[in-house]
Amino acid sequence: MKIILIANLAGGVGKTTLAHSIATAASEYGKKTLAIDADPDASLTFLAGIENPRLTLAEVANEPGKNEAAIVKTIDRFSLIPSASRLIELERISDKFKEAISGYELVIIDSPSGPNRILPQLLSLADRVLAPVDGSMLSIRGALHIRRFLGSESKLRINLITNKKVNDFGLNQIKSDLDFVETEIRFDEKVHLAQFANRSVLTTYPDSDFASDVRELTYSLLEDFSLI
User: Fold this and answer.
1) What is the residue-wise DSSP string for 92-103?
2) Please, what is the Cα angle at 40 between 5 and 8, to 5 degrees?
3) What is the pTM of this model?
4) Residue pair 1/104 in contact by the 8 Å Cβ criterion
5) Over the stretch 101-154, which tens digit does the pLDDT of each residue have?
């Protein structure tokens, strides 16, 4: 099992869209995929078409035995541990949680924006961190804060995913601290149209530039993890 954490302390940079899309693409490639909504805002849960779930990460984080009852199969074919606003009260995740989700080949965690109590534990679970940036200095700053959360001695890789051209000044600020992935994600209006239908754009508009880019990124990640 490999775990990817989607993280950036800045909000509005596309974390949830990326988590939803990678989970869909991995499922298309035949991988047993679990997405975890670790954001009290529950945006990933909403995009998956789930409202007011009875069990969420808030209930299963410290009682992993409830995982089976909490996990929902989405219309985009990946499994999901949903979230709700009560997740904001979560202070820790059980040491047994990783073992409890080990039946999946790939796990995608959508993290909340801003500093929070469980972010260090989410980072400790991850094999890779993907930090989407949109070209603004706020998004770059949010990605650098993740690096500082980890500390200089951490060997965990943080990869930046660009969805717009990052200016040269921004690049010079971060290229010595963080890695870039080769694939740039081309966002377009089809992403929002798909979200209105509570579907992944990969399912609704499979031939879009965005869908093509996410599939390329996901395939690269699966190759890196020797899952394909």
Assistant:
1) ---TTHHHHTTT
2) 35
3) 0.91
4) yes
5) 999 999 999 999 887 889 989 999 999 999 998 877 888 888 888 877 777 667
